[in-house]
């Protein structure tokens, strides 16, 4: 595998969007602006040189965390796989630089952040609980002369 991994420090330039693919995978994207700063000896101060823009793609759990954590203007560090794509639109050829993010976080050299762990609750396998001869399955309810409320069984609120 000859993938180019990059770490880019910059600012969130667009609000992260969120959607699901046809296959059900969560994906988020945002634009990242990374401005090179240089020391100007003549002025004895830092000056901005040029700004590079990247489209950052976050998948699965990272997608939801990006949308819930990032806002425009916030300083971030993005690590992921760089993909340069050549495209043509309206007769003009152009390049785009995309990053498939592996990790995204706030740049703590420029501010503070509070971490909140996302619970990854897994559904527990549930076994029917039989209480004092009460029916457990729909078939047992019907056999006992009861009526099955299909909406309640399906989890739909009345």
From TrEMBL:
* GO MF annotation terms: single-stranded DNA binding
Q: Which domain of life is it from?
A: Bacteria
Which key words are in the record?
Answer: DNA-binding
What SUPFAM superfamilies does the database record attribute to this sequence?
Nucleic acid-binding proteins
Q: Does the keyword Ribonucleoprotein apply?
A: no
Q: Which GO terms describe its biological process?
A: DNA replication
Q: What InterPro entries is this protein classified in?
A: NA-bd_OB-fold, Primosome_PriB/ssb, ssDNA-bd
Q: How does it assemble?
A: Homotetramer.
Q: What is this protein called?
A: Single-stranded DNA-binding protein
């Amino acid at each position: 595998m000859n993938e180019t991994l990059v770490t880019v420090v910059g600012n969130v330039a667009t609000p992260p969007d969120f959607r699901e693919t046809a296959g059900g995978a969560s994906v988020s994207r945002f634009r990242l602006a990374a401005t090179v700063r240089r020391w100007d000896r003549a002025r004895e101060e830092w000056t901005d040189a040029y700004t590079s823009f990247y489209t950052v793609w976050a998948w699965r759990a990272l997608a939801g965390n990006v949308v819930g954590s990032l806002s425009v203007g916030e300083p971030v560090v993005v690590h992921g796989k760089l993909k340069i794509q050549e495209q043509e639109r309206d007769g003009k050829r152009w390049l785009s630089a995309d990053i498939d993010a592996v990790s995204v976080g706030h740049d703590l050299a420029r501010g503070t952040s509070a971490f909140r762990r996302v619970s990854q609750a897994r559904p527990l396998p549930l076994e029917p609980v039989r209480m004092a001869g009460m029916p457990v399955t729909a078939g047992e309810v019907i056999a006992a002369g009861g009526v099955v409320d299909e909406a309640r069984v399906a989890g739909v609120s009345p």
